[in-house]
Amino acid sequence: MASGVLDTTHPPPSETSPLLGDSSRAEDGPSDEGESGNAGLPLVEEVAFGKLLTILMSTWLGVFFAALDGTIVATISAPISSSFNSLSLISWLATAYLISSSACQPISGKLTDIFSRRTGLVVSNILFGVGNLICGLATREWVMIVGRTIAGMGGGGLTAISTFITSDLVPLRKRGIWQGVGNICFGVGSGLGGIFGGYVNDNWGWRWAFLIQVPFIVVSAILVWIYVDIPVRVTDTSRWKRIDFLGAGTLVCALVLFLLGLNSGGNQVPWTHPLVLTTIPLSVVLLAAFIYIEDKVAPEPIIPVRLLMDRTVLSCCLTNWFITMAVFALFIYIPLFLQVQGYSATLAGTRLVSQALGTSIGSLGSGYLMRMTGRYLYFNYGSVTFIAIGTALICTLNLATPAMPPFLYLFISGLGYGGMLTATLVAIIAAVDHEHQAVVTSASYAFRSTGSSIGISVASAVFQNLLRSGLWSRLGHLGDAEKIIRKITERFEEISHLPPGIAAIVRDCYMGALRAVFLTTLGLAALGVLASLAMKEHKLHMNLARKD
Questions:
Q1: Could you tell me the pTM of the whole model?
Q2: pLDDT > 90: what percent of the chain?
Q3: Neighbour tally for 439: CB within 10 Å
Q4: Which of 283, 263, 265 is nearest to 273 (CA)?
Q5: Does domain 49-244+299-479+488-532 have CATH number 1.20.1250.20?
Q6: Nearest CA to 168 among 123, 232, 219, 224?
Q7: Please, are residues 131 and 150 in contact by the beta-carbon 8 Å criterion?
Q8: More confident residue, 547 or 343
Q9: Nearest residue to 391 (alpha-carbon basis) of 190, 529, 194, 262
């Protein structure tokens, strides 16, 4: 792949310049000034619409399947868990994916700055495909979790790196529109995933929901290899020596330990278990070590800590963090609520379509408004307000709620989520120099993916603890209470085999636990609204050089 740097002695890029600029200079190696002489300038320049669309579509195919995979698991997690006789596996199916995604996304920006976006995307496709293959063939619970972990490593890279590529090729003023189009691909994948997963499970079994994806991921990897060719910045230092192994290792370990302890506490083991009491404090120590390494030791930090001290960057990261906690908790437990109401996995999946549709419309709409006005601040305020309203409405759901309200409430929250994602992404890129846009986007994705893991873990802890306490409170007087409670917490389908009176009590207990989850998400959404208030307005330029 061609690689190169821009020479600051030449004119700045214009909208008619070729993608790779002057390739003859790019292949000569680093300039006399070194990397610092042109660090703030882009390595690529704007390309024709057709070529840009071809490049981005080749990356969005992987994004589509990463989104599809997420909602597939949301709708078939109960059948998968039942087949392994462990309802608590519901949390692990999502969390194993998100833990690995959270751990890998923060380092993807710097690594693809060094080794190229194309290499990063191809590796991500391979990991995602292998992970899904393992899940489709798994015969044991731990194998399933390993498969989800590997798939998460790839899926996280697919979504993050596609965003870096769009930022490489599109000026800030137009960035929101293209991000909106990319989010439509993500939204369509999310919307179809629930229906597809439920249909495949009801007709062929849940394993095929994973296996069918593998051939398409192979095609995605081939397209990326053919069409994505973004130059990397050349320096005199070896690529391997530029990798902050110490920082990357401490960050990955900190995230994995923290999320492992958080997900295990109150779910797999008591909060006082040595696993929880060891992993969470150790993760805090490693996080402190990571901050020190990035600020004082690493020559090329994975995430420059000083960037997070910027008011807008920190506000964007925290807004993504809290809002994504709320949204992903709902994404996992709304299908369970619908199945408690009596809907099949397929029908439960159709309810997620409205959330995906809202996300697509909100993202593209806010991108268009930012293109027209050159502003993003008030659109972000409106977006997080929509999320809070949608989440508050979801808290009113009960077992007697008709079919339409969940559609509407999920659409409202999705509308706000899509707008928030686009507005905060544009804001965080606008707040830093061009050379830092990939690493700061990685930081944003780290907060987002960590937030999704924490949100699901917190929701799972709330749900599991309140469900068990509610069941023992209502059914503890029965002679075979322990047997009944064990069955209905391991296999959701066991509810249909209970006597009508006991089944009604069990459904009430499920609803009580779910309502507590929904109220928790409302609190998280409120924190996201507060975090967004610290954001500042920055200029959105019309060209990549940010010279207008």
A1: 0.76
A2: 25
A3: 23
A4: 265
A5: yes
A6: 232
A7: yes
A8: 343
A9: 529
At 86 the pLDDT is 65
Looking at per-residue pLDDT, the higher value among 323 and 69 belongs to 323
Q: For residue 99, which of 158, 153, 142 has the smallest C-alpha distance?
A: 153
Task: Find which of 79-93, 205-219, 247-261, 497-511 is predicted with most confidence, using mean pLDDT.
Answer: 205-219
**CA distances (Å), origin 283, targets 291, 436, 442:** 12, 26, 20
CA distances (Å), origin 293, targets 290, 368, 404: 5, 40, 52
Give the Cα separation of 451 and 457 in Å (integer): 10
Kind and range of the H or E run holding 315: helix 311-341
Mean pLDDT for the chain?
81
- Compute the half-sphere exposure of residue 534: CA atoms within 13 Å on the CB side of its CA: 16
Q: Within 13 Å, how many C-alpha atoms sit on residue 501's CB side? A: 3
Q: What is the CB neighbour count within 10 angstroms for residue 435?
A: 17
Q: Give dist(CA 88, CA 78) in Å, integer.
A: 9
Angle at 368 between CA 365 and CA 369, to 5 degrees: 90
Q: What angle is formed at CA 180 by the lines to CA 176 and CA 181, rounded to 5 degrees?
A: 125
Q: What's the rounded Cα separation, in Å, for the pair 186 and 205?
A: 25
**Both structure tokens of 285:** 């120590």
pLDDT of residue 399: 87
Amino acid, res. 92: W
What Å distances lie between residue 150 and 102, 117, 130, 141, 215, CA to CA?
12, 20, 7, 15, 17
DSSP structure class, residue 237: S
* Closest listed residue to residue 47, CA positions, set 427, 548, 543: 543
The two structure tokens encoding residue 157: 């890279």
Q: Residue 292 burial by CB count (10 A; 0-12/13-18/19+): exposed, middle or buried?
A: middle
Domain map (residue ranges) of the chain:
49-244+299-479+488-532, 245-298
139, two tokens? 């015969």
Question: What percentage of the chain reaches a pLDDT higher than 70?
Answer: 87
All residues at 6 or more sequence positions from 115 whose CB lies less than 8 Å from its CB, including other chains: 232, 239
Question: How many CB atoms are located within 10 Å of the residue 381 CB?
Answer: 16
